[in-house]
Amino acid sequence: MMAGRGETTVRDGHAVLRRIALLVLLLLVVQGSWLWAQAAPRENEPRLDPRQLSAQPSYIQRVEAAIVGLSVEVPPDRPSARTLGAERFGSGVIFDAAGHVLTVSYVLLDAERIEATLRDGRKVPARLVGLDLEVGVGVVKLEGAGPWPTAALGDSTVVKPGDVVGMVGVSGDGRLSATPGRVEAVRSFSAAWEYMLDRAFVVSPHNPSFGGATLVDATGAVIGVTSLRLGDAPYMHMVIPIEQFVPGKDELISKGRVMSRRVRPWLGLYTVSSEDGLVVSGLSPVGPARSAGFRPGDVIVRLNGEKVGSQEEFYRRLWQGGVGQEVQVVVQRQRGFESITVKPADRYRIFRTIGQ
């Protein structure tokens, strides 16, 4: 009898457990149905367009709306049309509610007509505000009342190699071109056209819309303007840190140029460093170096009696003088030496750098 009661008790316990399991399952089914009903879109409820979803990291998404494409027309008789073309396209970023757009200077040099394309599809005319040729950036203003989406300017002084960044521009067909990447190097940079920065970023990987593309940090703040593609594939980019722009920003907007900065004497020389030394690779058709007698292939040896060992050294010594102040340049030409006297010019008076 005792054994029979034990078996009955076990059977009763199993039955209770089965009823509890069924009850739990029923509750889960009812809860799931309720959650599905809440999540399912109502008949008149707007559905999210999959095309509006962004696969980009959040720090790129934060700046997307403020990125613009810039279509620029330059009169064919202007000095820069010969080297940069009469029709140009670049990218920029709206950085204030007034509709000011920051981009790279070569996109805007000598510009006569500018049209900006916003991410929402609007096409609006823009006016050239001014260029900072020493830094390599330019500003245009969107015409109209807006409203304009804006991006925040960040702090590029804290950027270091290895930092996560994003490069965001617009392709020639109007599509957003965004590339997550990293800072490969922070160093000085000099280029052929009498240009040098004491601090610049080298960033990878390659973004095909690099001309004026915006560089953002891991918070989505603007920390640079992309200028050049460097080297051979796989390419990297030289980026102008935003710290180079911010100190002269208000003066550039109000006057079209950073007037408080000392004017850099300009010769109109293109140079490259080689095993032979600093070689003249080309001449601006409107620069004083051309009329003074420089020739492609000349090797620059001395400036005002001091030996020139590098492109950076040449620039620093040239910029110690003033506009219109004669300099003596000794060049090696074939097997001999030539001394050339030249008066540097103010290139802001030669190129169109502000709106008309």
Compose a concise summary of this entry.
This protein has 356 residues and is an alpha+beta fold. The chain contains seven helices and 18 strands. A six-stranded antiparallel barrel has the order 1-2-3-6-5-4.
Q: What can you tell me about this protein's structure?
A:
Helix content is 21%, strand content 35%. It has helices spanning 2-39, 58-64, 81-84, 105-108, 249-255, 288-292, 311-318, and strands at residues 67-73, 87-94, 100-104, 113-117, 123-132, 137-142, 164-170, 176-191, 195-204, 214-216, 222-230, 236-241, 269-274, 277-283, 299-303, 306-307, 327-333, 336-342. A 6-stranded antiparallel β-barrel has the order 1-2-3-6-5-4. A 6-stranded antiparallel barrel has the order 7-8-9-12-11-10. Strands 13, 14, 15, 16, 17 and 18 form a 6-stranded antiparallel sheet that branches. By secondary structure, the chain is an alpha+beta fold. It is built from 7 helices and 18 strands. It folds into 3 domains: 1-32; 55-261, Thrombin, subunit H, CATH 2.40.10.120; 269-349, PDZ domain (Pdz3 Domain, Roll), CATH 2.30.42.10.
Describe how the helices and strands are arranged.
Layout: H1 2-39, H2 58-64, E1 67-73, H3 81-84, E2 87-94, E3 100-104, H4 105-108, E4 113-117, E5 123-132, E6 137-142, E7 164-170, E8 176-191, E9 195-204, E10 214-216, E11 222-230, E12 236-241, H5 249-255, E13 269-274, E14 277-283, H6 288-292, E15 299-303, E16 306-307, H7 311-318, E17 327-333, E18 336-342
Antiparallel strand pairs: 1-2, 1-4, 2-3, 3-6, 4-5, 5-6, 7-8, 7-10, 8-9, 9-12, 10-11, 11-12, 13-14, 14-15, 15-16, 15-17, 17-18
